[in-house]
Design a protein that fits this description.
heterodimer; A: 505 residues; alpha/beta; Rossmann fold; 3 domains; six-stranded mixed β-sheet; 18 helices; B: 320 residues; mainly alpha; ABC transporter involved in vitamin B12 uptake, BtuC; two-stranded antiparallel sheet; 13 helices; 4 strands; AAA+_ATPase (chain A); Sugar ABC transporter ATP-binding protein (chain A)
Chain lengths: 505, 320
């Protein structure tokens, strides 16, 4: 269906793609995997006409094509579904579906009746049931993505490129998405599927292409490829090495002190948290489990003073901390690595160096003047220790890869020498290599006596990383997993066993 | 950069635009200077340079404060009215001696800045609205305090306005000192770093535990104080207090200088050197057109062209 051969693309100083061959066949879901910086995004952008290749051929249905703009690619039948949905939130589902090609009645006015009927049929055909008259923004992110997909199909796309479509979906929404993808496959559409999640790849994909450092290192059927081999291809390491280290980088157990360093009592925020209590001891990694919207991030934010609470207390090392004040929490030794790295974490326009020094600045100044020598020492230490890959301390953080941005943020907090570290999805959207490094670091920090709160929607990471897990549901703690009960099975059971019902599918 | 074979047409264009963004304003100043040396009679005289510098000084001082406000993704529209308030206070308190009068005038600017900052930081009003309110309010207060033009006869102030040291007018010395001071604060102090972080990503700055509100208030206080100083200096030069017209449209001149100097309106970056050059560029542009007997309307059109050019260069940078 869509074939590229010998593709090369160079950016100033970086060879992003060299001699890449890639084929998306009709009726096949093709996984495109690789670490961040392997060239996945560049390849997608070339396929969809955002970038122009320096060399190489592209052919659609056997005839050579060249896209100069994304519009040309779309007209050739290539649609892209991005992580962030590119639709108009205030318009109705049907309008979004037919945007730019609305069915016209007499007088050239939009024939709403026909539009609603056809929209309903299209969505039903894909197994999606929503009211097409409702504004799009009232739908969940998952449903919005389905609408984007439906739109792609409706405009006669023959190739659909999906860039990490499940990163913000709940498990149930993922199921629906996969059903839609299967429908697309049956209709003979070629799907290019980019994801970091191993389980999903094996569930939905037929073929796989592995990119590393801008080259294709493997391409073929996915069924014959075992997971370990796939990971080793992506990482460029030997199987024995990966196998010995396990799939996550956590060691599992730490020497835990008796007295808690952090205690939170009855944290309550209207509609979001009801009476969450937790205690965290030095050297312990406490996991927070639960579904999306169960109050995990809210708990972390409430403890860190970033979310004002209606009632509840936070105590660090025996001293009460004023709630609702980030500076107070930071002074008490609580650091929060926020979930939304891009908008709440990094300051993209500032350099790596200034981002690392940002929170610790007051202690790095003399009479209000910045002590450059000390900052340089700290920045240098952390860039080495966390292996931050940047052109230098003066590169802008916005230009780094996700994994390195996350490391810069970790360095920012570690420079404060906190007592409690709250990590909200520390490995979301970062590549396998950086993920392993971050996981190893969390272990190391706990070994050094730091109290760590870990939030992760990856059950494997949560279970292997934590000594103990609190399971949240609807803003309240429903179960605590300790000792031998810290397993994925128990976690699932705890989430599913909630008496409120409705989740028994 | 070393590998020339990589340099393609597209890359080249990006680089030219980036260079234009970084150094365009300085190039503009140089071009205008060269043009004037070649084609304008009596341009290359010490007296002319003196006049130009004295004229640009108040705009420059106001633009310094404006650059700080814009660096936090805000703006301060009240600066012109603060100048008017300063001149009113100055002439009102001149009886108690020039020094005290100057102090009172600057305190007036600080109070307006505090009000701006409190509205922005605590009440959460958008900067453009908050400072618009103070722009109207401060001008009104200035007119209540001093309803009409009044001569300012004070030897101290007169020498401040027209005296010089080593041939350099006091006004210019003060403006240069303030520019260096603000540049130093932005580059070298913790406050400067925090200001940039607040402007670049406020949620991130808040979660990093920065004193976001304090930073915002200090920024608007600085802007108010600098505008008041500019008002005092302008009064000293004119030897008259005119709260009706002093500083009117000054906020626009200041924003122009900042934007032309390459400070993006989206915050997170403050270019003091560029702001100085921006103010000088606009001043030279005006002079050039006037000296060649073109009507003032041409000056406005030329300014518009320069602004659009600067914004275009900034936009290209932002898109990449």
């Amino acid at each position: 269906m869509l074939t590229v051969t010998g593709l090369c693309k160079t950016f100033p100083g970086v060879r992003a793609l060299s001699d890449v061959d890639f084929t998306a066949r009709a009726g096949e879901v093709h996984a495109l995997v690789g670490e961040n910086g392997a060239g996945k995004s560049t390849l997608i952008k070339v396929l969809t006409g955002v970038y122009r290749p320096d060399a190489g051929e592209m052919a659609c249905d056997g005839s050579p094509v060249r896209f100069h703009t994304p519009l040309q690619a779309q007209q050739a039948g290539i649609s892209t579904i991005y992580q962030e949905v590119n639709l108009v939130p205030l318009m109705s589902v049907a309008r979004n579906l037919f945007l730019g090609r609305e069915p016209r009645g007499r007088l050239g006015l939009i024939d709403f009746r026909r539009m609603h009927r056809e929209a309903d049929e299209t969505l039903r055909g894909l197994g999606i049931r929503v009211d097409v008259r409702r504004p799009l923004r009232e739908l969940g992110v998952g449903a919005q993505q389905m609408v984007a997909l439906a739109r792609a199909v409706a405009v006669d796309a023959r190739v659909v490129v999906m860039d990490e479509p499940t990163s913000s979906l709940e498990p149930r929404e993922v199921r629906t998405l996969f059903d839609v993808i299967r429908t697309l496959r049956e209709r003979g559409i070629a799907v290019v599927y980019v994801s970091h999640r191993m389980d999903e790849l094996y569930e939905i994909c037929d073929a796989v292409t592995v990119l590393r450092d801008g080259r294709v290192v493997h391409t073929g059927r996915l069924a014959g490829l075992d997971r370990l081999r796939l990971v080793s291809l992506m990482l460029g390491r030997e199987i024995g090495e990966v196998g010995r280290e396990g799939r996550t980088k956590f060691s599992g157990s730490h020497a835990i002190a008796d007295q808690p360093v952090l205690a939170a009592h009855d944290l309550t925020v209207r509609h979001r948290l009801s009476g969450v209590s937790l205690a965290l001891r030095p050297g312990e990694v406490l996991g927070l489990g639960g579904l999306l919207g169960s109050g995990r991030s809210e708990t972390a934010k409430a403890v860190a003073g970033a979310l004002p609470v209606d009632s509840g207390r936070v105590v660090v090392a025996g001293t009460p901390v004023r709630t609702g004040s980030t500076p107070a929490a930071i002074r008490a030794g609580i650091s929060l690595l926020p979930e939304d790295r891009k908008s709440e974490g990094i300051v993209p326009g500032l350099s790596v160096r200034e981002n690392i020094a940002l929170a610790a600045l007051p202690s790095l100044t003399r009479f209000g003047l910045v002590d450059d020598a000390r900052i340089d020492r700290i920045v240098d230490t952390f860039m080495k220790r966390l292996r931050i890959k940047a052109a230098g301390p003066h590169q802008k953080v916005g230009e780094l890869s996700g994994g390195n941005q996350q490391k810069v943020l970790l360095a920012r907090w570690l420079a404060l020498q906190p007592k409690v570290l709250l990590l909200d999805e520390p490995t979301r959207g970062i590549d396998v290599g950086a993920k392993a490094e971050v996981q190893a670091l969390v272990d190391e920090l706990a070994d050094e006596g730091l109290a760590v709160l870990l939030i992760s929607s990856d059950p494997e990471e949560l279970i292997e990383g934590s000594d103990r897990v609190l399971v949240l549901k609807d803003g309240a703690v429903v179960r605590e997993l300790t000792g031998d009960a810290v397993t994925e099975d128990e976690l699932m059971r705890a989430i599913a066993a909630v008496p409120s019902g409705g989740h028994d599918d | 950069m070393t590998d020339l074979s990589l340099t393609r047409a597209g890359v080249d264009r990006d680089r030219v635009l980036r260079l234009l963004q970084e150094y365009g304003v300085y190039a503009g100043v140089v071009v205008l200077l060269l043009f004037n040396f070649a084609f304008t009679a009596h341009f290359a005289s010490a007296e002319n340079f003196r006049t130009q510098a004295v004229q640009v000084a108040p705009v420059l001082i106001v633009a310094l404060g404006m650059a700080l406000a814009i660096g936090t993704e805000g703006v301060d529209l009240s600066v012109g009215s603060v100048m008017a308030l300063a001149t009113s206070l100055l002439s009102l308190y001149l009886g108690y001696g020039p020094w005290l009068a100057v102090v009172v005038a600057v305190v007036g600017g600080i109070v307006v800045g505090l009000a701006n900052g409190a509205l922005v930081a605590f009440v959460g009003v958008q900067p453009i609205v908050a400072t618009l309110a103070l722009m109207v309010g401060a001008r009104g207060l200035a007119l209540v305090l001093l309803p009409q033009l009044k001569d300012v006869r004070d030897p101290g102030l007169a020498s401040l306005g027209s005296g010089d040291a080593l041939g350099i007018p006091y006004l210019v010395l003060i403006a240069a000192t303030l520019a260096l001071l603000v540049a130093f604060v932005v580059r070298r102090t913790a406050f400067g770093r925090q200001l940039l972080a607040v402007g670049d990503s406020r949620p991130a700055a808040r979660l990093a535990g920065l004193p976001v509100r304090r930073v915002l208030i200090v920024v608007y206080v600085c802007s108010g104080a600098l505008a008041a100083i500019a008002g005092v200096l302008a009064t000293a030069r004119l030897t008259a207090s005119d709260p009706t017209s002093l500083g009117s449209l000054m906020e626009l001149s200041a924003i122009t200088a900042v934007v032309v100097g390459g400070t993006p309106l989206s915050g997170g970056r403050v270019r003091i050197g560029g702001t100085v050059a921006g103010a000088v560029l606009i001043q030279l542009l005006t002079t050039t057109l006037i000296k060649h007997d073109l009507p003032p309307s041409w000056t406005q059109i030329a300014q518009a062209v320069v602004i659009v050019g600067a914004v275009y260069a900034a936009r290209e940078r932002g898109k990449r």
